[in-house]
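The methods section describes the discrete structure representation at length, but only in general terms. What matters is that the chain and its backbone geometry are given together, residue for residue. Nothing conveys this as quickly as seeing an actual entry. For illustration, here is how one protein appears when written out as sequence plus structure tokens:
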Amino acid sequence: MNTQKRIGILTSGGDCPGLNGVIRAVVNHATLTYGWEVVGIPYATEGLRSRTSIPLNCHGLDVRGIDPLLSMGGTILGTINRGNTLEESKDIVNSVHEMGLDALIAIGGDGSLGILRQLALEGKWNLVAIPKTIDNDVGVTERSVGFDTAINTVIDALNRLTYTASSHDRIMIVEVMGREAGHLALHSGIAGGADVILLPEIPYSAQEICHHLDELRDRWGRKFAIVVVAEGIQPEPSAPICASMDGSVTCGMGQYISDQINRLRDQPAEIRVSVLGHIQRGGMPSGLDRLIAASFGTTAVELVAQNRFDHMVTWQGGKVTVHPLEEVLSQSPRLVDPNDFLVRTARALGIYVGSNVDAIARHPELASTPTPAPALM
């Protein structure tokens, strides 16, 4: 028998589609199944610091009986990804108990979840974590809330740019998010028909990119190309074109690659650079993100009911699993494995994705036995 509980929920770090779906699932399951009280903590640790809470119930946020949370992007609770939270921990660690919360459900990426776990250990909070990030780099879980929608957003942009690129015989360079992990660039690049995909985990050569583009033109008659660049790729050792006096890159990596291509080619190419930026964070969540949000939210409530704290819900093999938060954080950020099946799929499709040999030398921890190809029926 579960006694009456008062649980809090917050969203931390950058926003993404599906956050409101998680909030909806937590509120519905906790109130309808267990009769618990649920309160939202606005602006993550800022709300904890000020001891601010917002009552939530399954019928309090609808409009004329319509539930908007299922399809609404962003987060109704607000979120932050700034500040020196741990340095100000003395103002936060006692907040959960002073607010009368029996448990706190935190939705965040690996950075914010790591900070919240440290605060939880210091303040002895009952913490349950839910992963969200369009970078999909939280450890252990195969999917995080928001990733699928971001893929679809990038694919839509690539579809549109492909037609204008082919009409004008241009190279279109599309810079997408991904500071350390290239999952978003890899997935969307393959699905969106890219000719080149550049990832933070796999070194590349601007000269090899040019050779690949020239082959598309000379051997196959392709007069245009689509290049997807993760924002976190590193410039080559040679001096970058757009650099300050100290050698640091002063432009986005999409523009950097554009400059490198035109520097190395005999005839300058007509290139356009598109930086998708925060467009990738917006919009209504996809069907998969809605399902993941619902599954994560209800499972988090079950963990509270079972008094299983300091755990995170994860997505593995098409279903929800649960793992200790310490294990998750020890494996974060989760990088693209150079031997990953999708990397090999990209190469099999004729997409340039850089050199695996150099990638393993730079990231020995990524060395693994290649995933065998699926058996043919």
